[in-house]
């Protein structure tokens, strides 16, 4: 799974996020995870960053923009080949891994919330190599059944709902997957709408990916759902009701 969140201030944020995800998919369609893991960790970081940057440079030439800041986007991905599981994280958002008991056994959290930094790091950041995090697990030695990956908008809801503990909300959401209360995208959207109780939580990017080793692969086309559009409609409806009073 791969997720990227473009920076709000970047002109080509949406495109940069798309290129970032497509570049990760492209790389691992050409190279096995085992090949990748044969490199030391510094080379692993350089390899994936350079592959994405090459994609961004190609796109930048197409649109005629030389300011790298206009292509700012975060990076989160997870690769599982049945033998090894690898997570990679740069920027905000988070990755949660849960075992068969649905206990959260690993968290890769955002730097700018965990107190490490006051800024978000992006693929195009000059110091990206210093802040990208790669973690590797051997499947035979661990019990990881589910994974959840989220951008910063939904992470804020996780953080608030869990009383400053995002892992508890991740565990709650994954428990619905475990109990098959969430089995498709529609179920997930309905659940997230109910969980986002604070209007301000809906005003940022909400990208969430869930992996469950016990569920069959879903080949359906993902539908993009805008929490912001829904929130703006709700505000508009309230305003109309007030005017009609």
Relevant terms:
245 residues, alpha+beta, Phosphatase 2c, domain 1, four-stranded antiparallel β-sheet, 41% helix, globular
Describe the fold and architecture:
- With 245 residues, the protein is of the alpha+beta class.
- The protein has a single domain, classed as 4-Layer Sandwich (Phosphatase 2c, domain 1), CATH 3.60.40.
- 41% of the residues lie in helices and 17% in strands.
- It contains eight helices and eight strands.
- The chain has helices at 13-30, 33-37, 41-63, 128-131, 152-161, 166-178, 185-195, 227-243; strands at residues 2-3, 75-80, 84-90, 94-98, 104-108, 133-138, 146-150, 208-212.
- The chain has a four-stranded antiparallel sheet. Strands 5-4-7-8 form a four-stranded antiparallel sheet.
- α1 crosses α3.
- The longest helix is centred in the first third of the chain and has 23 residues, at 41-63.
- The termini are far apart.
A few lines on this structure:
This protein has 245 residues and is an alpha+beta fold. It has a single domain, classed as Phosphatase 2c, domain 1 (4-Layer Sandwich).
């Amino acid at each position: 799974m791969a997720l990227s969140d473009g920076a709000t201030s970047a002109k080509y944020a949406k495109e940069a996020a798309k290129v970032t995800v497509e570049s990760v998919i492209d790389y691992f369609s050409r190279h096995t995870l085992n090949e990748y893991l044969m490199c030391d960790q510094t080379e692993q970081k350089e390899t994936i960053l350079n592959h994405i940057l090459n994609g961004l440079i190609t796109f930048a030439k197409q649109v005629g923009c030389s300011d790298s800041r206009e292509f700012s986007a975060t990076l989160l991905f997870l690769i599982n080949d049945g033998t090894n599981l690898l997570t990679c994280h740069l920027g905000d958002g988070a990755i949660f891994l849960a075992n068969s008991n649905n206990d959260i056994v690993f968290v890769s959290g955002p730097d700018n919330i965990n107190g490490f930094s006051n800024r978000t790091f992006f693929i195009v950041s000059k110091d990206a190599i210093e802040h990208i995090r790669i973690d590797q697990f051997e499947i035979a030695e661990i019990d990881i059944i589910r994974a959840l990956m989220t951008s910063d908008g939904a992470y804020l809801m996780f953080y608030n709902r869990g009383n400053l503990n995002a892992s508890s909300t991740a565990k709650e959401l994954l428990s619905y997957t475990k109990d098959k209360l969430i089995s498709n995208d529609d179920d997930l959207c309905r659940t997230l709408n109910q969980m986002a109780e604070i209007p301000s939580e809906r005003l940022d990017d909400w990208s969430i990916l869930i992996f469950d080793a016990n569920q069959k692969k879903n080949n359906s086309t993902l539908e993009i759902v805008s929490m912001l559009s829904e929130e703006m409609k709700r505000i508009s409806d309230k305003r109309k009701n007030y005017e009609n009073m």
